[in-house]
Design a protein that fits this description.
With 317 residues, the protein is of the alpha/beta class. The chain has helices spanning 3-8, 29-35, 76-87, 102-115, 144-155, 189-201, 215-227, 246-254, 260-268, 272-292, 307-316; strands at residues 14-19, 46-48, 54-59, 65-70, 91-96, 119-123, 173-178, 206-211, 234-238, 297-301.
Length: 317
């Protein structure tokens, strides 16, 4: 089902969530165990993240370090297909620039097309941890908009090999990311919004936001997007805090701020169970406020755990 049709044709706030592929060596039952508690809330679609390779170092007995390139969380396409088949729910795999050249990207998109998966979230992807910055793959894309344009070309029947005759156009519906607190590499919010507008003009049909913990930042972001002429649905992304280290990990990793009130409550907690309860209560308040403001859908970042998302959804939906 077309995601934009879902977002544009609802008179109530819907439910969706994002899955994290399990670590290599585990099986898909972990994914099913994450999904099962959330199915009672009728998710309209389920996202599946994609993860680039990374360099890890193996230490030998002589003290020397051997670099190895590994992909710790493979299987996005397979997981998306399995989830769609088992739960009869639309899936949205992420498509990233990081670690892929254009040919690999095209082949991956062809696989999705053959599987009947035509909704994707288009992202640049994370920086190379070993380099501390994003490095463009040789023959790949430097920016999400370039990846988006490749997908739009396929939707018009244009493939990398220009000698292909009578090619069949694909029909991908593309979402992109938005940052209520600005992308960490953008010099300012105004330019960040211009980059986002360019992606919409290039063919993206909806926006999913980075997690935020202050709804005012989301509403301000939406208002600024509309001022820029961005008129597509803007889906709020919610992530409940679940462990005390999130107070430093989330701001460092995702370049976001945490409200002082939330920080104070987490700091009082003596156990992770207490932190988890605080995170659930905070997210419930966020979601009820978002519902009151008629957002089309609330998208939850599960990070591989769903018990806290289920508690939130029971109070909200």
């Amino acid at each position: 089902m077309n995601i934009t049709e879902i977002l544009n044709n609802t008179n109530k706030t819907l439910f969706s969530f994002e899955l994290l592929p399990p670590l290599k060596g585990t099986n898909i039952q972990l994914i099913f165990d994450t999904i099962d508690p959330l199915m009672e809330f009728t998710p309209q679609y389920i996202n599946v993240t994609y993860h680039r390779e990374e360099v890890v170092y193996k230490k030998h007995p002589n003290g020397l370090l051997e670099p190895r390139v590994v992909r710790k969380r493979p299987g996005t396409v397979g997981i998306a297909a399995a989830v769609m088949n088992k739960y009869k729910t639309p899936v949205v795999p992420h498509i990233i620039c990081a670690g892929f050249n254009k040919e690999e990207t095209e082949n991956g998109l062809i696989d999705l097309d053959f599987l009947g998966i035509d909704n994707v979230l288009v992202l640049r992807g994370d920086a190379d941890k070993s380099m501390g910055k994003f490095i463009q793959e040789p023959g790949g894309h430097a920016h999400a908009i370039d990846l988006l344009k490749q997908i739009m070309n396929m939707n018009n029947g244009k493939y990398i090999d220009s000698d292909i005759e009578n090619s069949t156009p694909t029909n991908f519906i593309c979402g992109v990311a938005g940052y209520p607190e600005k992308h960490c590499e953008a010099p300012n919010m105004e330019l960040d919004l211009e980059f986002l507008k360019a992606k919409i003009d290039a063919g993206a049909q909806y926006i999913v936001t980075q997690m935020f913990f202050d709804n005012k930042k989301y509403y301000s972001f939406v208002e600024n997007c509309r001022r820029k002429g961005i008129d597509v649905p803007i889906v709020p992304g919610i992530k409940p805090i679940s462990i005390k280290p999130h107070l430093s990990v989330l701001p460092h990793t995702f370049h976001i701020d945490l409200p002082q009130e939330l920080t104070n409550e987490v700091m009082k907690c003596k156990t992770d169970a207490e932190v988890r309860a605080v995170g659930v209560e905070w997210s419930i308040k966020q979601c009820k406020d978002l519902l009151a403001n008629n957002v089309p859908i609330i998208h939850f970042y599960t990070m591989g755990k769903s018990d806290n998302i289920a508690k939130i959804a029971k109070e909200v939906y």
